[in-house]
Amino acid sequence: MLRIRPVQPGDYPVLADIAYATGFFGGSAEVYFPARALFSELWVGPYLGPAGACGLVAEAEGKVLGYILGSMDPWRYRLYYLQRLPRWLAWAALGRYPGLGGSLRYLLRAVRYPSRAAPLNLYPAHLHLNLLPEARGRGLGEQLLRAHLGCLRDRGVCGVQLSTTEENTAALALYRKLGFQEYARWESPLWTPWLGRPVVHLTLVLLLNGKDLLKNSSA
Predict the structure, then answer these.
(1) Which of 151, 154, 161, 163 is nearest to 122 (CA)?
(2) What is the 3-state secondary structure (H, E, C) of 137-150?
(3) Domain boundaries in the chain?
(4) What is the pTM of this model?
(5) Residue 210: which pLDDT band, with cuts at 50, 70 and 90?
(6) Gap between the Cα atoms of 205 and 184, Å rounded
């Protein structure tokens, strides 16, 4: 039996495994980020503490098949990184992040080619949806996303945004089905070293207060 339940702090290891296993366009993030422990702290850690909101997992027979994580407080989200940066630097100097050298290329490129966020006053929340390969095509993503959006509405959040790429065709169809619209679209060379070509990135937005969605002309 499938069930959707709230994320718990003890879920961190399995969520970290799923994030890493799917972090490169559905495949393993090891391709571009061999520092696995740091990857988890960067892209899972923020959402299991005070910065997280409305996180959910989908599980069947005790196995977690996917998750949706997010934050509705941009300032707490940023504070997570500011508070942990000194520790990350110290641990990096002590060699506690195996594979860090191979991950620096991506980190430096991510700074050089950042994503384009929508206005935080309209869309303070953001989310990440990940499913294991065997869980895809079963409607789990839609169940997770609908439940997550319902939770945000119940908490009075005015809007949510997310970043993705045109490569993520299945997720794009789901986001558009549930009302997300494009805020920004741009071609980025961020992934060129690993894919051999630039990729079209998208920022999608959804207002949760019943008003018409913001339409943006940025490209």
Answers:
(1) 161
(2) CCCHHHHHHHHHHH
(3) 2-207
(4) 0.91
(5) low
(6) 9
124/113 Cα distance (integer angstroms): 22
Q: Which runs of consecutive H residues, i.e. helices, occur in the chain? A: 12-21, 36-43, 74-93, 100-112, 140-154, 169-177, 192-195
For residue range 172-197, list pLDDT tens digits in order: 999 999 999 999 999 999 999 999 99
**What's the rounded Cα separation, in Å, for the pair 92 and 199?**
30
Please report how the helices 140-154 and 169-177 are oriented relative to each other, as an axis angle in degrees rounded to 10.
40
What are 63-93's pLDDT values in tens digits?
A: 999 999 999 999 999 999 999 999 999 999 9
Ordered strands of the 56-60 beta sheet? 2-6, 56-60, 63-71, 125-131, 159-165, 199-207, 181-188
CATH class of 2-207: alpha beta
